[in-house]
């Protein structure tokens, strides 16, 4: 009998924020990536409203699972496992996805894998560029997180090197877009304006880049304040605000710091691959500058296509498939949503070990950070 | 007929199996903070206790609230997904109807009230003519604001027990049981009634503030 562990067929469910994502993968091959977004319902609030997101997840879940299976052309009976984002994320939103995944896995008699949202953002690149090199350096940037992570094994060993000490990078884009009256979400619109602006027009500060600052941590709160002050000063003087130049100069300050620190981490750790994921990885200037700096440093850059960078179910399925392939223990039926699941937990294994002999051996070597 | 009924709209996580005539297994646990963790193991336990597996179920019945949203959604999402995976219908029953059906007052004479705890010093409530006949749409209100409308009526549910000023004659049960929900659904189905697809009864808009213009950061 062919061992399905080589190329496990896994369905993944993601509901940590405002996207209801359901993806299907076979090993490292993407079969379906269905996403229903409630972003338009949040736009008038200028940010994601948790209760609005949770209500939308409940409505969208069953149709999105249906759509993903049709798109993948597979039957639910043939799945080797169901994966779901167990955290981190919005508690109420996560709980909708976890409830659906548990019910689906239980009803189909399939193993359940509660996985980490951040590790999923890294693992999704396997669908684009093949198996992850080990180790992989990952820069994760989105509205909710900004971190540098070093992973020797995406199913068991993810080590945080640095993270933002205040705002996430994507949050800074949203806030500056609001100051400029450009609406929500801020990332895409700032990117668009910035293309026509001069990134060197205004010298905005680069946070935490002094010689005594932590090498891999980020700070975007000071930058946000500096940009807002600069704009207010123009407005107070009755002058027009050069939106394109402000957008370009602000964006340059963000991506300069992100890429500088990521490349430095690669050099310090002797890692020759850099993976960039999360919603902000869709930013065109971040991709370009990272490419430039990685080339100069002899580092291979891996950035998935934009649709795989933003939150989606395929990334969860990708990590779930890796859990199956590496015989990681499935989660228990009382799996809970954990809004602050630590990045060092790539998944939430059950308390009862697998009964298979091969598994027991694997498990003994697994818990490097527990 | 084998109905699987579940409800997470009150602090109880409650599951029951009903064969069309009787409840054959059930479980109720009260823990308002752990609906998500408790529900699936409870389903597993109830099926196990009856010596059955989920694929024997012919329809799923779920309490649609009203109830605190986060918990309420656990039951609704679970029921919906069971329906999808098993290819069986999923029926919604108002949680307050389940409480009315289980109440001793049902055997008595005259109308009564069902009230559950809506938190924020409010109750979810409706009035009933008898165990099977609701007179008003479920609503959410401060007890003092409905005191006149429920004056003189006996009441059941945690909402009634919590506010004796408004509900001086309050009775058990405190929370809904899936057994009652299943019994009511079985009765309605046997009578040829059509049961609706589940729709959550939130009764309140989401808490969301449209942010004011951004905060000015320039010092005065
Ligand atoms: Zn994300």
TrEMBL record, chain A:
Residues 336-358 are annotated as: Disordered. GO terms for cellular component: cytoplasm. Its main location: cytoplasm. It catalyses: L-threonylcarbamoyladenylate + adenosine(37) in tRNA = N(6)-L-threonylcarbamoyladenosine(37) in tRNA + AMP + H(+). Substrate binds at residues 140-144, 174, 187, 191, 283. It holds the Pfam family TsaD. Its cofactor is Fe(2+). Signal peptide: none annotated. It comes from the Bacteria. Binds 1 Fe(2+) ion per subunit. GO terms for molecular function: iron ion binding; tRNA N(6)-L-threonylcarbamoyladenine synthase activity. The keyword Metal-binding applies. The keyword Endoplasmic reticulum does not apply. Keywords: Acyltransferase, Cytoplasm, Iron, Metal-binding, Transferase, tRNA processing. GO terms for biological process: tRNA threonylcarbamoyladenosine modification. It is found in: Cytoplasm. Residues 30-317 form the Gcp-like domain. SUPFAM superfamilies: Actin-like ATPase domain. Fe cation binds at residues 117, 121, 311. Its EC number is 2.3.1.234. Belongs to the KAE1 / TsaD family. Required for the formation of a threonylcarbamoyl group on adenosine at position 37 (t(6)A37) in tRNAs that read codons beginning with adenine. Is involved in the transfer of the threonylcarbamoyl moiety of threonylcarbamoyl-AMP (TC-AMP) to the N6 group of A37, together with TsaE and TsaB. TsaD likely plays a direct catalytic role in this reaction. This is tRNA N6-adenosine threonylcarbamoyltransferase. It comes from Streptomyces longwoodensis.
TrEMBL record, chain B:
One of its GO terms (cellular component) is cytosol. CDD domains: ASKHA_NBD_TsaB. GO terms for biological process: tRNA threonylcarbamoyladenosine modification. It comes from the Bacteria. InterPro entries: ATPase_NBD, Gcp-like_dom, T6A_TsaB. Residues 32-147 form the Gcp-like domain. Transmembrane segments: none annotated. Pfam families: TsaD. NCBIfam families: T6A_YeaZ. This is tRNA threonylcarbamoyladenosine biosynthesis protein TsaB.
């Amino acid at each position: 009998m062919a061992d399905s562990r080589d190329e496990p067929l896994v369905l993944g469910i993601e509901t940590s924020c405002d996207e209801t994502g359901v993806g299907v993968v076979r090993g490292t091959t993407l079969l379906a990536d269905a996403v229903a977004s409630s972003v338009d319902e949040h736009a008038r609030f200028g940010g994601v409203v948790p209760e609005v997101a949770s209500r939308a997840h409940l409505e969208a879940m069953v149709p999105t699972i249906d759509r993903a299976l049709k798109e993948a052309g597979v039957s639910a009976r043939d799945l080797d496992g169901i994966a779901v984002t167990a955290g981190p994320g919005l508690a109420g939103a996560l709980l909708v996805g976890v409830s659906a995944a548990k019910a689906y896995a239980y009803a189909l008699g399939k193993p359940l894998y509660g996985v980490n949202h951040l590790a999923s953002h890294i693992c999704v690149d396997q669908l684009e560029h093949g198996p992850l090199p080990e180790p992989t350096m990952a820069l994760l940037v989105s509205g909710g997180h900004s971190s540098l992570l070093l992973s020797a094994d995406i199913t068991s060993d993810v080590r945080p090197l640095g993270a933002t000490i205040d705002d996430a990078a994507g949050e800074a884009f949203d806030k500056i877009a609001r100051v400029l009256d450009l609406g929500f979400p801020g990332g895409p619109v700032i990117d668009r304006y910035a293309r026509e602006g001069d990134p060197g027009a205004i010298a905005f500060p680069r946070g935490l880049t002094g010689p005594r600052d932590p090498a891999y941590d980020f700070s975007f709160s000071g930058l946000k304040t500096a940009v807002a002050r600069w704009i207010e000063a123009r407005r107070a003087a009755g002058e027009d605000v050069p939106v394109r130049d402000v957008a370009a100069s602000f964006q340059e300050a963000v991506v300069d710091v992100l890429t500088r620190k990521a490349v430095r981490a690669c050099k310090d750790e002797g890692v020759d691959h850099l993976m960039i994921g999360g919603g902000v990885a869709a930013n065109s200037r971040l991709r370009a500058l990272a490419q430039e700096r990685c080339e100069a440093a002899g580092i291979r850059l891996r950035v998935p296509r934009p649709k795989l960078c933003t939150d989606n179910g395929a990334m969860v399925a990708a990590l779930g498939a890796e859990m199956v392939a590496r015989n990681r223990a499935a989660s228990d039926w009382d799996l809970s949503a954990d809004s602050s699941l630590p990045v060092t937990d790539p998944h939430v294994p059950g308390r009862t070990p697998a009964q298979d002999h091969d598994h027991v051996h694997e498990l003994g070597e697994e818990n490097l950070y527990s | 007929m084998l109905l699987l009924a579940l409800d997470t709209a009150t602090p109880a996580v409650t599951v029951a199996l009903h064969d069309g005539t009787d409840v054959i297994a059930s479980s109720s646990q009260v823990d308002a903070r752990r609906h998500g963790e408790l529900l699936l193991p409870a389903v597993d336990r109830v099926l196990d206790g009856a010596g059955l597996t989920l694929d024997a179920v012919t329809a799923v019945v779920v309490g649609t609230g009203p109830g605190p949203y986060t918990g309420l959604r656990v039951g609704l999402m679970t029921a919906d997904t069971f329906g999808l995976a098993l290819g069986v219908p999923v029926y919604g029953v108002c949680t307050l109807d389940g409480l009315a059906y289980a109440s001793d007052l049902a055997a008595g004479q005259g109308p009564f009230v069902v009230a559950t705890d809506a938190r924020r010093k409010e109750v979810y409530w409706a009035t009933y003519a008898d165990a099977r006949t609701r007179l008003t749409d479920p609503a959410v209100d401060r007890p003092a604001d409905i005191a006149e409308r429920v004056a003189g009526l006996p009441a059941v549910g945690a909402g009634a027990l919590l506010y004796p000023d408004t509900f001086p004659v309050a009775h058990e049960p405190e929370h809904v049981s899936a057994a009652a929900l299943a019994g009511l659904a079985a009765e309605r189905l046997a009578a040829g009634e059509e049961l609706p697809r589940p729709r959550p009864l939130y009764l309140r808009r989401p808490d969301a503030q449209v942010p004011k213009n951004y905060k000015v950061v320039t010092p005065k």
